[in-house]
Amino acid sequence: MVRNGEAEMTLGEKLKSARKCAGLTQEQLAEKLLVSRQAVTKWETDKGLPDIENLKQLSKLFHIGMDSLLDCGETMDLSVMREEIHLEDYTYTRKWRGRWSKKAGKKDMVVMGRYPNAEIHGLVGKQVLTKGERATDHAVGFLTGAPFGIAEFLNGIKNLDKEFYLVNQSDKQFLVVVTDEFMESRRLVEKVTDRKFSFGGFSFVDCGIISGLEG
Predict the structure, then answer these.
(1) Taking 50 as the threshold, does the pLDDT of residue 148 lie above it?
(2) What's the predicted TM-score (pTM) here?
């Protein structure tokens, strides 16, 4: 479909782009919505349409307004910027107020350097288990006597090198993750206003402003 000489995104194309930007497979998205993977495939190929309840869940999961999803004349800004970083180029001195970990402090400096005039919030991020992962975790615990929560613990280990931030810059808002090697900024289509929110398979808690306060 073309309007004003520019290709327009169908609902299926928007869903596929949003899913990929959130880092989810079709199977993972299906588990979150309690539908089959085949249903997700049909939606993304425009061979089927999600019902109103699934549309609401998709809108909430991807932080995309339903109007934006349904309006084929509107393109979504789902741009993701990934930049290589070198933490050894930064010097951070431990402070009584601030990060105790030098590495975390350096990551704060990376974000503040990239967004010098923005309001930056530190986030605590936790990867949410899929339905399948929860079932496997309980099965392993039942069969082996291991404590429940092993899968959640392993997810936590896997994400130990990540620091998360919510950046407010003018009328734009970015969800930023910084690892030991790169910084990835994802512009959010709909602004987050709650202290607790979920996005892309993670749950987040806003721990407050680390940069951008007057004075």
Answers:
(1) no
(2) 0.58
